[in-house]
Amino acid sequence: MITPEMIARINELARKQRSCGLSEQEKTEQATLRRQYIDHIKAQVKEQLDRLKTQQCGHTHDCHCGCHHPH
To answer: By its UniProt entry, which InterPro entries does this protein fall under (predicted)?
Structure first.
């Protein structure tokens, strides 16, 4: 889960990177936080798309209607 504190830290590191640069430890922290953020967003998008596909099909995940939904 992405917290407001994590987003604040991502933004703080980005500002510091632009102004005076980051230490190696900060670069590693920035990369880790960014990866967590991106993975979280990807998971949300996938979940929404899966829900949309199920709604469009109108069937349960065990149907054999040929809707090409990954059951």
So the answer is: DUF896
